[in-house]
Design brief:
Layout: H1 2-20, E1 44-53, E2 58-60, H2 63-66, H3 70-75, H4 77-82, H5 88-97, E3 104-117, E4 120-134
Length: 138
Amino acid sequence: MARIVATLVGAALLLAGSVWGTDDNFPFGPFSMYAGVNAPDDDAPDTRVEGVDSTGTLVDLGERSTGIRRAEIEGQEQRYRAEPSLLRKVADAYAQRHPDAPALVEVRIVIRWHGIEDSRPTGTYRDEIIASWRLSNE
């Protein structure tokens, strides 16, 4: 009997979460990251954060080099678009982890749009910079 009650309660929570819930209610609310479906010819986005140091070298600013997860960046994409100066925190996180490395003079969020046709990758891509902070901006 306890199993039936637990199953019914779980089903009720899932139903309520699916109707009224948000990602914060997971696992009883939607996990919208996987809730959508792209059309067969829609390009596929791949977001990354990169920087340029004072020597002109391109630097990958992923989680290993900054401690900031990609999901944290993607989740606040609109804030970074509206206030690119927030990317200074990424530069600061990099500097803290790499004190002997040349300083970053630019940080940008780049979306690489991979070409898709008939649900298959075409091997083509285009990059779109959606937010950029430069040291000289401050």
